[in-house]
């Protein structure tokens, strides 16, 4: 895994490994509280918290749907003088998140009327209205990484 802490200028970095289980959300949220500090504003931290929960939920419900609960999901976050970075690592089959985000408004003009793809709608709003960089890519060793970055 590419370690966020290896990049110079890190103010705070941490890594958490949890099981593929939605009941880990309180643990993930508690862990992420440590990133609620300067230079990260309250607004950016809240956006990051929402994106983190969505990314984790997607890893559990979609990427790891066929895997046992013991399958680990690694989460990394780092604050830097100019950005907040969050990464969620999963072991599922890769997919094209960018394409889904690009077509979500066309396919789901009113997301409240659909059960699926609320996360893509959320990620699109974070990207378009709040300038988050959102990437999902296949990494080495059959792992995928959702990378969420907000420059401030």
SSE topology sketch:
Blueprint: E1 12-19, H1 25-32, H2 42-63, E2 72-80, E3 83-90, H3 97-107, H4 118-130, E4 132-138, E5 144-151
Antiparallel strand pairs: 1-2, 2-3, 3-5, 4-5
Helix pairs in contact: 1-2, 2-4, 3-4
Question: Main attributes?
Answer:
five-stranded antiparallel β-sheet, 4 helices, alpha+beta, 152 residues, globular
Short description:
Helix content is 36%, strand content 26%. The protein has helices at residues 25-32, 42-63, 97-107, 118-130; strands spanning 12-19, 72-80, 83-90, 132-138, 144-151.
Structural write-up:
It contains four helices and five strands. A five-stranded antiparallel beta sheet has the order 1-2-3-5-4. It starts with 11 loop residues before the first strand and ends with a strand. Strand 2 (72-80) and strand 3 (83-90) form a beta hairpin. The mean pLDDT is 90. The longest helix has 22 residues, at 42-63. It has helices at 25-32, 42-63, 97-107, 118-130; strands at 12-19, 72-80, 83-90, 132-138, 144-151. The protein is of the alpha+beta class and 152 residues long.
For the largest beta-sheet, the strand count, sense and barrel status come to: 5 strands, antiparallel
The chain-level structural class is alpha+beta
Percentage of residues assigned to helices: 25-40%
Give the termini distance in whole angstroms: 25 Å
Mean pLDDT: 90
Order of helices and strands: EHHEEHHEE
Radius of gyration: 15 Å
Instruction: Estimate the strand proportion.
Output: 25-35%
Instruction: Describe the strand arrangement of the main beta sheet, using strand numbers.
Output: 1-2-3-5-4
- Global shape: globular
User: How many DSSP helices?
Assistant: 4
Strand segment count: 5
List the uncertain runs: none
